[in-house]
């Protein structure tokens, strides 16, 4: 049989059903499939919408070569996603003779009517062959090369139209209003930007057509609105996800087009792009199916962002963030704030927006926090919320500025795994970053991780290709106070401009003056003020929705209340959402009508808030009842002053009420939130402000006197702790701690002092001080143990200092003394206290001064370890020792506010001298905590550094002539200037024959008024700085000048301590946001030995040993005039540090420089004109300083001569010579603002002198064991900071006039200490020095005569073959003094006598007991022994740990019994049963007694 040619006409269908829950009628179409040869063929009708009886009348030509060929018919209902089939029916060609055919489908009642006609073979042949050829070509094409019928631009336009319609018809699903709003704004923006750019991209066109088809659901939705049909919750959820998916797809299209945040098309950038297109399309199809079937969404939102599993990465424990749980925070009503949400969306998705920060302000109660929470929720749902951090002044951890950046970093780490890796890397590299200054935290924990995530990586897609990331910061005005949030405001104002382009930051706050001052002038911060209008439409919508619920709850008639009353209530709200929400809660009571009428009385709206609160309080209970008023005062007062919200259970514990507090609180639901197991909180801060102001609340019964309630809260906290501490816990060193305090005790331990210091003069502070003293004299150490358990001990020094100040104000001496002791104890032993609570009493307390109240109240020698004779009698002036073990300090300086210390120095190896090749660095320290405040910055050479006048910058000048400006918080380089950039090139030789300057005068202290004979020469440098060789001591690295010469034996280094981990060292060109000053590849050996900055930082002067001074205008980046000379040093001497013999006047108008011949030269800064020479010193000037007023100039030289000058006229105001006899290498180091001078010597001791009298004034500062290299007074003169070579940095209290007492010590750490045979004497030695000490009193025993070889007779060898006479004498002495084994004999055989440093003193009764105990201890008791650097107590089960330093432990199992405080570094030791003698790194030697019960008790634990 020949070929068969037919015409098939699809006419119509009947009986089509619709399974969609949203559409009432189907969208029908038919597909026809058959096989031509081996190739499948398909025809498809058009889609006829919204009818059960579609009519097509479409004709199709069929061509077959076999009667047995089958034709497959399938009919569909085109849904919003996939098509729903009515089934398939197959027919063979043979029976299909020309006729009418009805085809029934198996699913439902659908019947398809077709007509078959026979086609003329000849006339159709050519057409048929053409069709076949065309089909063959189409089939050979790739499957994805299909014909596109709708352009991308048209599809986007259709979606915009559909969203516009949806905003009008979605009243029945108000909760999707915000999402419609955001989706419309997003799609509209992309529609405008993309235009026709993507119309040839078939994949994108197909995706957008799928999205546009899905939006056909708006048609049946409009019908449902007309029919007043409510959408069920499932369909609402589906529509909501469609809108969210639309937003994400639109942002993807924006990036795909190259018009997005990445600034380039991601079409060909990543291999996953095509797959992402297909995934988006599949998501829309799936959502369409959910719409049709009325099923909830089963699939997750498809985002342009990479889906990744963000793990905890152990960051929570390292960052210790504040808890950010916003489940219970209110959000905007779905139909309110739509305009504001549209504005926010437009700003967020605009890649060209110049502003990175949107700052939203408004009155209290305007709805800022509600708006912030709504935005955070919306962007969290689509995976674009980077972080939501909100401040709350009622929650201390959420109001503390120091918690903010750690919390922000933690929240960001939860947003994206790439950000999390960057943050984890920063924490791993610098374990102290979470304790450092906020600037450093922002850089390392926020800015750099975001930049790393947004940078191109070899691993895959970067964050920059995925659209915006939103950070929301709410209630900034509730962050601390103006003083404590100052640094944070600076960061938010300045540093946010450096964030990646994709990051959008939203900040809400009141318009506080300091916030306005910080933000208003920043171009990258966009400000938006929330308007408060008396007839705000959003307020009306909100109140109507709330009234609808009240109406239904109370079975009121529809339309309650009357429209007029509604309008009046809206007017009363005055645009304040807090008023509206509080009013609705107030009306939602037993009698809503009466409550509504009550609120409608009165006028105005700002005053109306107070009126509203008054009405809410008045209607809450029986104010005539004294009991009710008392309960209100006690319960609400407690809530008002709580530093952290507490539960009703804790309130009940504090107040010891018989009736649960929740009963009363339930009456105040309109203003106070309380629920089971949740902290009680006042709903809005305006209510706290209302009840704490008698002027506002008027009625005394409503008034909460904050100071009185702070007093009560303090007493309640103390009572809770006293109950807890009645049974003190016994701690074993190293034991795992169990946190078993309840909320009341935890709160009390954390905040009792905060309550105490908040009590003002109006309350009975004396009575409270007595209560506090009674508590502290029993439980101070118990409380410190609790803070150690709670991990809050590091914050105790600052709060104890405030308690000490409060006690001084009150005027109670005992309380003041004990608070001071506690403050000093918590400060100095901060590391030990934080380590473990067991160390507080057993380890730290024995080292407290004997005369302190703390020691006298809590130390019991029968129970606790004892330092024989006491470690110190009074508190040392040393406030804190900074843990710097790997850097030899060159320069130290305070910040203006004394909160930071900057230091420079060279990193060193213990066994190597400093030779100039070390990595020099700048480090910054937090004075309060002792931790580093910024990452260290590596430099090329020895340098000086100082803070700018505002403390925001660090200015650095190096020995190679480089000048750096660093950010004091982050260490970022702000500018760089190297010597060959500023150096002035010589133009011509100066005319040395010119006449003298008439304004130049020379002054001598004995010859005032003589004129200088000739003008100075002003010339170009005789040699470039590169030829200046800066020499150092190659044997020790200790400077061989300015009184700091030391032998190798005296240059002490740590050969046992490993350097503590320090924050990541940051080389200067690290920051991708750095402007990047270009420096030449200069190789300079160095040569500048002194430098100085002007007070405003504009000028910097370098000086070298030849006397040449180079004055540089740092802002102009050039040397201002020719090099100045005449300030040569007396001789070339090897130095390490740069010394302070150049100084600017306070107004920067002049500067002075000292010379080697003892002269002082003064020049005018602007012109370089020398106008004074001051003569009087005979030795080199090495220290100069102006008084704060600029009317005096102080000078000092190495011979002890200190002079005071009038820097205007050159008069010698005063001259004194300090008696430096007995001071090894006297070295003046610093002048204080009030005219005191600090000096040092080779042993590291610091002395303070009155520059006007030459008398020493207290206190003597002993603590360094190497020569002090630098020191600086604070601006108020009360503090001193010092740093030493290969030693630490210390801060000192120099405000008092303490006695000029010294404690005996070695100048360097003793290498060896040993007990005498009786144990009553300790011998300590180091090269070239030997000392003896009383084991009982701890006092030094002076040798008479002194001989460093003296030792105990039993340790002297008898068989000296080289000196038979000496050997015989020794043998004779041993027989003679056999009953006196402590006898001392020198190497020459002479007897040495020991004399007590207090010869007339007698042993006390306790000291006699100690003496007997020492003599009774058996040194042959092998259960005690000395091994290497450890002391080991034997016990029947054990091993030894070689890593511990200064630890007493059991040898068998390594259990710790006792150890030295972590603040001390152990150098040497010897041991007798229960007695240990230590030599430590600060040169001290002492004997420690460990009571046997301590050893026995720990042995049995």
TrEMBL record:
Residues 1043-1065 have a biased composition (Polar residues). WD repeats lie at residues 1141-1173, 1174-1206, 1229-1259, 1261-1302. Keywords: Repeat, WD repeat. Residues 992-1006, 1014-1027 have a biased composition (Low complexity). It comes from the Eukaryota. Residues 986-1082 are annotated as: Disordered. Residues 1-109 form the C2 domain. Residues 356-511 form the NACHT domain. SUPFAM superfamilies: C2 domain (Calcium/lipid-binding domain, CaLB), P-loop containing nucleoside triphosphate hydrolases, Quinoprotein alcohol dehydrogenase-like. This is POC1 centriolar protein A. It comes from Pleurotus ostreatus.
């Amino acid at each position: 049989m020949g070929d068969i040619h037919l015409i098939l006409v699809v006419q119509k269908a009947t009986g089509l059903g619709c399974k969609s829950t949203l559409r009432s009628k189907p969208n029908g179409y038919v597909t026809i499939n058959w096989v031509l040869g081996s190739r499948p063929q398909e025809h498809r009708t058009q889609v006829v919408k919204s009818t059960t009886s579609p009519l097509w009348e479409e004709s199709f030509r069929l061509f077959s070569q076999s009667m047995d060929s089958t034709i497959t018919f399938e009919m569909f209902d085109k849904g919003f996603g996939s098509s729903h089939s009515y089934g398939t029916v197959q027919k063979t060609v043979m029976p299909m003779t020309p006729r009418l055919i009805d085809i029934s489908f198996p699913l439902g009642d659908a019947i398809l009517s077709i007509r078959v006609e026979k086609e003329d073979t000849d006339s159709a042949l050519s057409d048929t062959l053409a069709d076949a050829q065309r089909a063959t070509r189409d089939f050979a094409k790739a499957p994805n090369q299909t014909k596109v019928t709708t352009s991308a631009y048209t599809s986007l336009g259709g979606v915009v139209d559909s969203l516009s319609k949806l905003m009008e018809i979605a009243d029945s699903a108000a909760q999707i209003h915000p999402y419609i709003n955001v989706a419309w704004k997003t799609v509209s923006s992309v529609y405008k930007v993309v235009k026709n750019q993507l119309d040839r991209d078939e994949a994108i066109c197909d995706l957008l057509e799928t999205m546009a088809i899905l939006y056909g659901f708006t048609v049946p939705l409009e019908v449902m609105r007309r029919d007043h049909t409510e959408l069920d919750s499932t369909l609402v959820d589906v529509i909501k996800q469609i809108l969210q998916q639309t937003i994400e797809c639109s942002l993807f299209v924006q990036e795909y087009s190259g018009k997005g945040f990445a600034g380039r098309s991601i079409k060909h950038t990543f291999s996953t792009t095509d797959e992402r297109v297909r995934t988006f399309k599949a998501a829309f199809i799936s959502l369409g199916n959910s719409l049709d079937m009325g099923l909830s969404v089963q699939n997750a939102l498809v985002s342009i962002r990479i889906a990744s599993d963000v793990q905890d990465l152990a960051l929570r424990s390292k960052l210790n963030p504040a808890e950010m749980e916003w489940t219970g925070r209110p959000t905007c009503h779905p139909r309110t704030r739509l305009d504001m949400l549209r504005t926010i969306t437009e700003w967020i998705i605009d890649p060209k927006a110049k502003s990175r920060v949107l700052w939203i302000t408004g009155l209290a109660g305007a709805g800022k926090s509600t708006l912030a929470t709504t935005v955070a929720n919306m962007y969290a749902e689509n995976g674009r919320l980077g972080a939501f951090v909100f401040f709350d002044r009622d929650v201390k951890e959420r109001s503390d500025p120091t918690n903010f950046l750690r919390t922000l970093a933690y929240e960001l780490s939860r947003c994206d795994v790439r950000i999390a890796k960057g943050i984890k890397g920063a924490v791993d590299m610098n374990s102290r970053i979470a304790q450092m200054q906020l600037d450093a935290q922002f850089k390392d924990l926020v800015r750099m991780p975001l930049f790393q995530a947004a940078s191109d990586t070899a691993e895959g897609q970067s964050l920059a290709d995925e659209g915006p990331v939103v950070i929301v910061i709410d209630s900034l005005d509730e962050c601390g106070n103006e003083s404590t949030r100052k640094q944070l405001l600076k960061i938010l104002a300045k540093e946010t401009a450096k964030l990646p382009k994709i990051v959008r930051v939203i900040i809400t706050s009141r318009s506080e003056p300091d916030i306005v001052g910080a933000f208003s002038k920043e171009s990258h911060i966009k400000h938006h003020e929330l308007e408060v209008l008396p007839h705000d439409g959003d307020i009306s919508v909100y109140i109507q929705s709330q009234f609808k619920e009240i109406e239904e709850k109370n079975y009121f008639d529809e339309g309650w209340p009357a429209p007029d009353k509604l309008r009046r209530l809206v007017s009363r709200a005055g645009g304040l959402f807090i008023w509206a929400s509080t009013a609705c809660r107030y009306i939602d009571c037993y009698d809503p009508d009466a409550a509504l009428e009550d609120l409608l009385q009165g006028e105005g709206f700002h005053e109306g808030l107070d009126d509203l609160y008054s009405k809410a309080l008045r209607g809450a209970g029986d104010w005539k009842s004294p009991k009710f008023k008392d309960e209100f005062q006690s319960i609400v007062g407690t809530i008002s002053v709580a530093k952290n919200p507490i539960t009703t259970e804790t309130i009940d514990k504090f107040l010891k009420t018989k009736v649960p507090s929740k009963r009363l609180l339930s009456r105040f639901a309109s203003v106070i939130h309380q629920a089971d197991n949740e902290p009680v909180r006042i709903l809005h801060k305006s209510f706290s402000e209302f009840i704490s102001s008698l002027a506002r609340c008027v009625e005394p019964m409503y008034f909460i006197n904050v100071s009185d309630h702070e007093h009560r809260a303090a007493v309640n906290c103390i009572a809770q702790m006293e109950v807890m501490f009645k049974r003190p816990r016994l701690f074993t060193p190293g034991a795992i701690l169990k946190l078993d305090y309840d909320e009341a005790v935890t709160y009390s331990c954390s905040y009792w002092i905060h309550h105490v210091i908040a009590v003002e003069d109006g309350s009975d502070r004396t009575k409270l001080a007595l209560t506090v003293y009674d508590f502290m004299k029993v439980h101070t150490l118990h409380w410190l143990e609790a803070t150690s358990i709670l991990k809050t001990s590091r914050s105790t020094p600052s709060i104890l200092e405030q308690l000490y100040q409060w006690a001084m104000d009150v005027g109670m001496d005992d309380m003041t003394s004990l608070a001071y002791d506690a403050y000093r104890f918590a400060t100095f032993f901060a590391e030990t206290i934080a380590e473990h609570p067991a160390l507080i009493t057993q380890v730290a307390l024995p080292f407290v001064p004997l005369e302190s109240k703390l020691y006298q109240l809590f130390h019991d020698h029968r129970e606790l370890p004892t330092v024989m004779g006491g470690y110190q009698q009074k508190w040392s002036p040393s406030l804190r020792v900074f843990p710097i073990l790997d850097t030899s300090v060159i320069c130290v300086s305070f910040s203006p506010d004394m909160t930071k210390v900057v230091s420079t120095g060279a990193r060193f190896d213990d066994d190597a001298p400093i030779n100039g090749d070390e990595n020099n660095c700048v480090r910054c320290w937090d004075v309060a905590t002792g931790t580093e405040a910024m990452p260290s910055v590596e430099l090329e050479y020895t340098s000086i550094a100082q803070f700018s006048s505002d403390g925001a910058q660090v200015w650095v000048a190096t020995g190679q002539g480089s000048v750096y400006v660093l950010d004091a918080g982050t260490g970022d380089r702000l500018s760089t200037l190297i010597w060959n950039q500023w150096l002035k090139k010589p133009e011509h030789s100066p005319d040395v024959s010119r006449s003298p300057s008439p304004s130049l005068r020379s002054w001598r202290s004995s010859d005032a008024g003589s004129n200088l004979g000739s003008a100075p020469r002003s010339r170009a440098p005789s040699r470039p700085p590169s030829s200046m060789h800066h020499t150092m001591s190659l044997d020790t690295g200790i400077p061989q000048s300015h009184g700091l010469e030391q032998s190798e034996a005296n240059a002490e280094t740590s050969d046992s301590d490993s350097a503590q981990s320090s924050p990541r060292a940051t080389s200067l060109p690290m920051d991708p946001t750095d402007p990047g000053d270009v420096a030449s590849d200069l190789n300079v050996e160095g040569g500048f030995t002194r430098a100085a900055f002007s007070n405003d930082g504009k000028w910097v002067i370098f000086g070298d040993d030849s006397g040449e001074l180079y004055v540089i205008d740092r802002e102009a980046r050039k040397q201002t005039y020719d090099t100045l000379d005449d300030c040569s040093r007396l001789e070339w001497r090897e130095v390490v540090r740069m010394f302070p013999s150049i100084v600017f006047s306070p107004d920067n108008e002049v500067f002075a420089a000292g010379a080697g011949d003892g002269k002082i030269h003064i020049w005018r800064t602007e012109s370089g004109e020398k106008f004074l020479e001051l003569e009087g010193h005979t030795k080199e000037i090495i220290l100069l300083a102006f008084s704060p007023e600029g009317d005096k100039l102080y000078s000092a030289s190495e011979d002890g001569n200190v002079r005071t000058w009038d820097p205007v006229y050159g008069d010698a105001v005063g001259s004194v010579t300090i008696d430096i006899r007995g001071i090894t290498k006297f070295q003046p180091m610093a002048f204080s603002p009030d005219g005191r001078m600090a000096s040092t010597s080779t042993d590291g001791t610091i002395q303070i002198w009155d520059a006007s009298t030459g008398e020493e004034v207290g206190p003597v500062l002993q603590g360094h064991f190497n020569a002090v290299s630098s020191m600086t007074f604070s601006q108020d003169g009360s503090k001193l900071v010092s740093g030493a070579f290969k030693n630490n940095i210390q801060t000192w209290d120099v405000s008092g006039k303490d006695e000029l007492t010294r404690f005996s010590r070695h100048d360097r750490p003793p290498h060896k200490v040993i007990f005498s045979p009786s144990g009553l004497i300790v011998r300590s030695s180091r090269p070239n020095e030997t000392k003896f000490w009383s084991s009982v009193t701890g006092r030094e025993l002076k040798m008479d005569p002194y001989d460093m070889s003296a030792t105990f007779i039993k340790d002297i060898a008898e068989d000296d073959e080289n000196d038979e006479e000496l050997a015989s004498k020794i043998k004779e002495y041993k027989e003679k003094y056999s009953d006196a084994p402590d006898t001392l004999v020198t190497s020459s055989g002479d007897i040495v006598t020991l004399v007590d440093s207090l010869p007339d003193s007698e042993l006390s009764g306790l000291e006699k007991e100690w003496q007997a105990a020492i003599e009774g201890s058996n040194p042959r008791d092998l259960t005690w022994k000395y091994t290497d650097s450890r002391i080991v107590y034997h016990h029947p089960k054990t091993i030894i740990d070689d890593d511990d330093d200064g630890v007493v432990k059991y040898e068998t199992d390594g259990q710790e019994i006792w150890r030295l405080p972590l603040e001390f570094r152990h150098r040497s030791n010897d041991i007798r049963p229960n007695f240990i003698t230590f030599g430590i790194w600060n040169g001290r030697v002492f004997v420690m007694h460990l009571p046997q019960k301590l050893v026995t008790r720990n042995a049995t634990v």
